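During the reporting period the student researcher (J.K.) took over the structure-prediction task from the postdoctoral fellow and processed the backlog of single-chain submissions. One of the processed entries is reproduced below for the supervisory committee.
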Amino acid sequence: MKKYYWILIGALLYSMSSYKNSSFKTGIEKDHKKLQELLNSPKVIFYRALKIGARSIPLEDSIPAEVRHLKLKEVNTKVFKHALLHRNDLSLSDYVSIYLEYRKLSKNVKQIDEDIYPTLSDTKFFLLSNKSNTTNNVAKIQTQNSEHLSLSLGLYPISSLKEVSLYEISKVHTPALVTSKEKLFVQFFKSIQYFEHQLYYLSNEALNENITLLESDAPISLTRYKNLFHWNRLSDAEVRQAFLSLHYLNRGLNYLLIGEQNSAADDFVKFASNFESLHLENDLYYFIQTYLNLAKDRREDASNYVAKILKNNSETDFSEKLNVVQNYLERGKLKKAQKEFNLLFTDYLNSEYFQGDFLQKDFGAILDKPAEVSFFKPKTLETLYKNIENYSDSEQLKLAQKKLKEQGNELWEIIDDFFD
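J.K. obtained the following structure tokens:
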């Protein structure tokens, strides 16, 4: 009888594990679909067209068929000389012609992989020397990986270009990265961007790879994370422990936001235990401890942690809601305190306080050399993008057409084709 009991328990555990794996696989598939929608948004498609145009410049007369009919050389040379010199001297007709040419390319850009073209470094070399730069395929992959990562890092702080930064980090070919340190950083940065775009399953997939590496005995240098997260007093081994803890935290938040509270609690316990042992207690730690203690109906402990948060955040946007939680706890109304706190916790995750502590970091400082956006300065691209984007609005394009007609510029007639 006992034998059948254990067989039944084993079958039940296997069934639960299979269901969880199946659920995760389904979640990954849904996230991939959402990611493709983000990477094919009008803003990203326009950017992709811009990059394809840039990367096709060195091809000269051997431009691929899909872009051969466009006046890319003339338009792109103008755009990228402007970008290289970081000037803002493009005229109205320049911006309109750039928009019209790239709009033509945008219709087909979803089917085009920019990585089949020369790198941006090759384009820069060609524009400055009028010569083609020859590299082997391995070197090309490494160069474009570096360019994708540099552009993602450079564009990430610009709120209007977050989707573009996501596109760039998604183009980094992880298997081609040389060191474990590089892979660890790229996967961590991917997980953060996926989290911000509510791609929680993809975020966990990236985190799981890193957690496996960090939990192993594999040697890896994490010295530069000391400055990034203000861990200068920690030893190298403790920095590794702290960084692993942040992975538990991020994975736990993903679990929480997809409704897997038990898995979230397991990761939150690991995070809190490590942070406490390292004496890294901060508001985020107090929030997690409040969540855990409320889940276990530990009213007094939860109240103590809420008091610590309030002490540090008496004038923040969420202090009033924290006082409501504290009031419920003092009156013994645990269920109401839990409900109010869970709503508050979601608000906190979307607040500048959480993002400042955890998301808005100078991630480029982790790299062996300072992140250099290989073609654009981020602000130059932002300015260029804003000016060109103006003409995606039909009313603005009609106003531009009127001005061009007054100036006697024949471009005004071409604009008519887009209103037919």
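The committee noted the following: Confidence is low (pLDDT under 50) at residues 10-19, 410-415.
J.K. will present the remaining backlog at the next meeting.
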